[in-house]
Amino acid sequence: MKLLQYILVVFLTCSTTLVVAQDSDTVSFQAKVSKKRLALNERLRVDFQMNKDGDNFVPPSFSDFVVVGGPNQSVSNYWDGKQRRFTKIYSYFLAPKKMGTFTINTAKIEVDGVAYTTKPITVKVTKAQEKPEDPNDPDYILQENIHLVTEVSKSSPYLNEPITVVYKLYVAPRTGISNYREIESPKFDGFWSQSLDDKGVKIKNGTYKGEDYRFVTLRKTVLYPQKTGKLTIEPISLDITLEVPTNRRDIFGNRITTQAHRTISASTRTVDVKALPENGKPDNFTGAVGDFKFNVTASKNSLNATESLQAKILVSGKGNLKLFELPKLKTPSTLEVYEPEHQENVRTYSGGMQGSISDSYTIIPQYKGKFPIPSVSFSYFDLKTETYKEITSEDIVVNVIEGPVYAEDDNNLPVSSTGKQAVTLNEDQFAFIKTKANFQNKKNQTFLNSPIFWTSLVGPLLAIPLALVYRRKREERLADVTGNRKRKADRLAKKYLTEAKKALGQKEAFYIALEKALHNYLKGRLSIQTSDLSTEKITSLLKEKGVEDHVIKDFEAILENCNLARYTPITTVTMQQDYQKSATTINLIDKQIK
C-alpha cells in the first residue's frame, strides 16, 4: 500500500513538472507599433518581441516606409523569483512615404527549428503637420502619451441608484513619470458619496483607444444621486513630474533626462438622473431603492406585566440603506413603548451599499391579557424589474400572563405609536391642599435687635471688600483677551447647541445650528479666524494641541454630516446621535487640549 502511494506521489510530481515546463516553453513572437495613426512628417517605431532566443530573423519589406533607423537589438534575461524571463526585441524606426492606410506585414523567426510569424498591423498616415512636434517636448509627451480618464459605470441612473466613478491615469510605454500628486479633488454636489480606498497603487497593463498602455487607478467612488436631471461629476487634477529625454548622454552612452512639471485634468462627465416612476408608487414609500428583505420580530411573545420585550424592524439587502427611513411600529396604548434604538451594519462596495439597518423598540406591557401588534408594511423600488414592491410583516400577539386587568374590552384596544396611557383620577386627588389655616400673632416682635436689623447694619460694611475684590477680578478678566475669546466661543457654542437641541426633527435648522456651534467652539479654543476653518487646518492644530486621533476623526465626521445633511434624508434618531456625539467630542477636546 505504501509503495502504491509513493508511486502515485512521484507520478503527480512529474506530471506537474511537465505541465510547468510546457507552459514555460511556450514561444511568443509579436509585433508592436508606437502608434497606429501618425502624420506624414512623423516617425513610427516598430518592435518585434520574442520570449525565446531565435535564429534567422526576417523582417517585413516595409515597402511603404523608409527605414531611418534600425534594426536595433535589445536583450533582457533575468530571474523573477519563480522562473527565468527572457525578452529579445528588434526595433525599427520608419518614415512614411505617402498618405494612406498601410499594412506592416509579418516578420519571421526560427526557434529550435520551428518557424514563427507575427500578425500584420494596419497603420494610417494622415497629412503632414504644419509644425512638426518635438517628441521630447514635455507638452507633446503630455498630450500624446499621458491621459487622465474619468470612467462612469452608468450615464442615466435612477434617483438613488448607485453608480461608480473611477479615475485612471494611462501612460504610454517608454514614457517616464517619476511622481504625481493630486492638486484638486472632485466635488460631488447633488450626490451622496463614499470613497473606496485601494490598498496601494498597482500598475496594470491595459489599452487606451486600441493601443497598449500602462495605467493606475487613482480614485474609486460610489455615488448615489439625490436630485433628478443633469448632474455634473467634476474632474480630478494632477501635478505630474515628467522624465524628458535630452540630447546629452552620460559616459556610458545613455541619454540624460531632465524633469518637467505639468498639470493634467480629466474631462468633466455629466449623468442624467431619472426620476422614479409615479405609476404604482405606494403611499408608504420613503425612498428605498435596491433589492431588500423586510422582517419584524419580537424577542418574546409571553411575559408578565412590567417586564420588557424587544421588537425589531429590520431591512437587509443591497441598496441605499443609509438614505431612507424605516417604517414606524404602532402598538396598543396599553403597551408602553420607548424611542427605538437605530443600528446600521452597512458596508459600501463598488456596486453600492450592502448590509442591514434596524430599529429596536423596547416594549413594557402594563396589563394582563393578549395585545396584538399590527403588521407593518415596507415598500421599495426594485431596479431589476423597475417596479415598486411592498412587503408586509405578520401580526405579533403579546400574551401578558400576570398583571392588573385592563378595564376596557380587550377587543377594542386603542392603537398608538407613543404608548401613552390615560390618567386615572381618584377621590383623594386634592388631598395635598390644606383647608385649615394656622395663623400666629406677630405683634410682640420688634425691629430693633432683630436679625433683619443687624443684617441691614453690617451687610453694607462687608460688601465693600467684596466689591473691591470683584472689581479687581473683573479688570483682570477684561485684560485677558485670549480667555475672553474662549469664553465667548464657549457661550456661543452652548447657545447654538441649545438651538440645535430645540430644532431636533427639523433637519436644516438643526444642522445649521450644530455647525455654528462647532465653528464658534473651534475659533475660541484654537484662536483662529473664520477664514482658517478648513479641515486640514483644524486637523493640524488639534494634533499640535495633543488631541487624540480618534477624537479628531469624530469631530471631522460630525462636520461632514453637517455638510451632507443638505442632500440626504436624516431621521430624528440620527440627529439625536449627532447631537450627543458633538457634546461628547467637545468635552473630550476640552480635556485633552494643551
UniProtKB/TrEMBL annotation:
Which InterPro entries does its entry note?
A: BatD (IPR025738)
Q: Does the keyword Metal-binding apply?
A: no
UniProt keywords (A-Z) are: Membrane, Signal, Transmembrane, Transmembrane helix
- Secretion signal, residue range per the UniProt entry: 1-21
Statement: the UniProt record of this protein carries the keyword Signal: yes
Could you list the residue ranges that cross the membrane?
A: 452-470
Q: What is this protein called?
A: Protein BatD
Q: Which organism is it from?
A: Olleya sediminilitoris
